[in-house]
Amino acid sequence: MFENDRLLLRILLLILLGASLWVLAPFWSALFWAAVLAFASWPLMRGLTRLLGGREALAAGILTGCWIVLVALPMIWLGFGLADHLREGVELVKNLQVSGLPPPPEWMARTPMIGGRLIGWWYSIDQQGTAVFATLKPYMGQVGNWVLARSAKLGAGIFELVLSLVLIFFFYRDGPRLEKFAYSMLERLIGDRAGHYLELIAGTVQRVVNGVIGTAAAQAVLACIGFMIAGIPGAIILGVLTFVCSLLMVPPLIWGPATIWLFVEGDYGYGVFLAFWGFFVISGVDNILKPYLISRGGNLPLVVVLLGVLGGLISFGFIGLFLGPVLLAVVYNLVTDWIASPKRPSPPVA
């Protein structure tokens, strides 16, 4: 009878655990990002707590406010800006259907060698505008649906980001207690090696964070230098936006339109320079600096970390950038410990 009661209790506990995970399922991504950001900036939290005389809640509130100002507000501004541009694009297409193309821009005539041909194409498209729009009409609905789906996904991503920056306050405030809880749980599972694996996970996440943030900062500085050389206005602001886009692994979202703007303005030399600078320097540094920063200071083979980063990105998306290396690091150390453990003596042959 007692064994039946224990079995029933275990089943109820498993049901409660599954129900809890189901309730938290919509917030796993936000919780994960909040934990990563809090862990990456934990030295700031410790220093600020000491400056404020041990008031952890106040320090957590200040750092959370800084994250919101530095990350959330620019992303929200960028999202609304993209929505406005999409609305302007739809209105432009409607106006083109009614009134046709405007006169060709002056820079088109000044384009070397192909300027006359471009103007000819411009007028040809204007004269055949009705037929062109009739040809494109079956595809415009698909394009509109694609844009709508991507806009909804972008809005969901911004909401998730804001939620993670709210949750980061609790990770800051309750960080030491969460660390003790994680250590106690690992100790119950694997015993004396709990501290080793906790340090392994922490060190792997820290190296990946350093690689991502360090690479994004380097790309932002290089982009700012390129914008200043090319004479693009607002180079510092564009550099900050490059840092944000580099965290999302899409820095061409900034230097690409800047290159197009230079060509539109007729600055072909600087346009070619910025195109080469963006492709080979701004985006190229990602392939060199990020692997170096991720593998620096750890005892894991570089190939394990790189396979974890790339495989995690392919399998889990951007979250896999952190999750992939951690999984491979834990498995690699488990196999290493198993190989290094003493063999059990073979049973005597009867």
Automatic annotation (TrEMBL):
Keyword Membrane in annotation: yes
Alphabetic keyword roster: Cell membrane, Membrane, Transmembrane, Transmembrane helix, Transport
Entries under InterPro entries matching the protein: AI-2E-like
Residues that span the membrane, as ranges: 7-24, 30-45, 57-80, 154-172, 220-250, 270-289, 301-332
The UniProt record lists the keyword Nucleotidyltransferase: no
Family label: Belongs to the autoinducer-2 exporter (AI-2E) (TC 2.A.86) family.
Name recorded for this polypeptide: AI-2E family transporter
Compartments (UniProt record): Cell membrane
Membrane topology: Multi-pass membrane protein
